[in-house]
Write a structure and sequence with these properties.
This protein has 19 helices and 13 strands. The chain is of the alpha/beta class. The strands form 2 sheets. A 7-stranded parallel beta sheet has the order 3-2-1-4-5-6-7, with helices on one face. It has a 6-stranded parallel beta sheet with strand order 10-9-8-11-12-13, sandwiched between helices. It catalyses: glucuronate acceptor + UDP-alpha-D-glucuronate = acceptor beta-D-glucuronoside + UDP + H(+).
């Protein structure tokens, strides 16, 4: 009988119907989500995948892809640098909230998403969704099945607070502030505390309200408040590795995983392989990722970067939107797209010049390649500070870039063996885990399917109010008690003083 039950459970898991909603328009982030979807499909699950970058893999028969590539239009309309910058709350409200609202409504209005909305309640067994897209949490109300949230980078403070994780603006400043920890500078502490006490009310009373209002237009007025839906989520995954980690405590249903999208590099095209093999002095590889495009970089910064690269005694492979550029140095080879993991795996690569995005940082770590980081936005500042403090990188801020500074920094990292040795040491730490992040996520997905949720992992700290969490009610009772005690004691003392004075007066009269 027990074997029969086990067989039925395994059968249910192997044939689960999973809705995966990952519409964020960034191919580097999509690599993480693709890996999860592909692995679930390979394990026999039927996966509906909402993505702006549909895969062309005919072997994966049980994946239905919903194309929301229209989301890429958002990058043409918004200043993403300010959309992910918390140092100015007003800019963040204006840029970020406008970006996310338009992006989500654009995705929901696509025909494929409308088809999902028309499906009956019993269409799926599990929903996967990005943590940064609260509107899509409404699908949990629509289909009444467990939901798991996945973030392709570290979790921001509001997610930690909603899930009941300890939140402390000095011990754990928000990753978007870019501070390394622990905070020792008083001005940084003040800024982090100020941002926290402004950021959270904005999220709770402005952003969440707007998202809830939007969600009701798609999922109905009977939907619970959007934040309450998220609170009841089964699990949350953040892509956080021990090299770039906050080292913060987590409640049981929040998991930090890494090594999700990293695979054995593919064979390099013969043209690129020839360039790498024949570079006598070695190769410098430069890429600013997929979100920081050179066409958006200021002209003087582009010129300084190219001049610095031209003065290097190395062959330079550079991912650039154009394969020709006025004044391009002879040693610089421009390509619109380059197979980054395969290039970084080549032993002739001496330095990787990067914007410091998480996926690029992980690919550098796993190949033991030292870095020169030019951070532009989001978590890139945090990654840059952490990798520099770990000894495998040097950081040059965009506003500080000059031809001489960038050239000298690259030469320093390329010629000092300590950077490569430290990169190799961090690679060993990164890879030393019982199973990969991808295996971890898939196991927990099937765990949630088997048990129809994971409410038993939920922390009680997620359910108590702000004043209860910080024990303000207890503190109020203590203060009131102390105050009343003080008032009573004062009255008693006054009465005693009057009585003593009265007795003294009577004795004087008698004498």
């Amino acid at each position: 009988m027990k074997l029969l039950v086990l067989a039925l459970l395994l059968s249910a898991v192997n044939s689960a119907r999973i809705l995966s909603i990952f519409p964020f328009p960034s191919i580097s982030h999509q690599f993480v989500f693709r890996s999860i979807v592909q692995e679930l499909a390979l394990r026999g699950h039927e996966v509906t995948f909402v993505t702006p970058n549909p895969m062309k893999d005919e072997e994966l028969k049980n994946i239905t892809q919903i194309d929301v590539s229209v989301a890429y239009k958002m990058f043409e309309e918004f200043d993403l640098k300010n959309a992910f910058n918390l140092t100015c709350i007003i800019n963040w409200i204006t840029n970020s909230n406008g970006f996310w609202r338009q992006f989500m409504s654009m995705g929901m209005d696509e025909e494929g998403m409308q088809d999902i909305l028309r499906k009956p309640e019993n269409s799926y067994d599990l929903i996967l969704v990005e943590t940064s897209n609260p509107l899509f949490f409404g699908f949990q109300h629509k289909f009444k099945v467990p939901m798991i949230a996945v973030c392709s980078c570290a979790l921001i403070t509001p997610i930690h607070e909603i899930m009941g994780n300890p939140v402390h603006p000095v011990l754990y400043p928000d990753i978007l502030l870019g501070y390394s920890i622990p905070l020792t500078d008083l001005s940084a502490k003040i800024k982090s505390v100020s941002v926290y006490y402004l950021f959270m009310p904005v999220i709770n009373f402005f952003v969440s309200y707007q998202m809830d209002k939007m969600a009701r237009s798609y999922f109905g007025e009977d939907m619970p408040y959007i934040t309450d839906i998220f609170k009841n989520i089964s699990l949350v995954f953040g892509n956080v590795n021990p090299i770039l980690s906050y080292r913060r405590p987590l409640v049981p249903n929040v998991k930090e995983v890494w090594n999700i999208h990293l695979k054995t590099p593919e064979t390099l095209p013969s043209v690129l392989l020839k360039i790498l093999d024949e570079a006598e002095n070695g190769v410098i590889y430069l890429s600013l990722g997929t979100n920081v495009r050179f066409e958006y970089v200021e002209e003087n910064l582009k010129e300084d970067i190219l001049k610095a690269l031209g003065e290097l005694p190395y062959t330079v492979l550079c991912k650039w939107e154009k394969e020709d550029f006025p004044g391009k140095p002879k040693n610089v080879i421009l390509r619109k797209w380059l197979p980054q993991p395969s290039i970084l795996a080549h032993p002739n690569v001496k330095v990787f010049v990067t914007q410091g995005g998480l996926q690029s940082s992980e690919e550098a770590i796993i190949n033991g390649v030292p870095l020169v980081i030019i951070p532009f936005m989001g978590d890139q500042y945090w990654n840059a500070k952490m990798l520099t403090s770990r000894g495998m990188a040097e950081t040059v801020l965009p506003e500080s870039v000059t031809r001489e500074l960038l050239r000298d920094t690259i030469m320093k990292v390329a010629n000092d063996e300590k950077y490569r040795m430290k990169a190799q040491e961090l690679r060993s730490i990164f890879l030393d885990q019982p199973r990969t992040g991808l295996q971890e996520i898939v196991w927990w997905c099937e765990y949630v399917i088997r048990h129809k949720g994971a409410q038993h992992l939920r922390s009680p700290s997620a359910d108590i109010s702000f004043y209860e969490f910080y024990m303000l009610d207890v503190l109020a009772v203590i203060l009131i008690t102390l105050f009343l005690t003080y008032v009573v004691l004062r009255k008693i003392v006054r009465i005693l003083i009057r009585m003593l004075r009265g007795n003294k007066s009577e004795k004087q009269k008698k004498s």
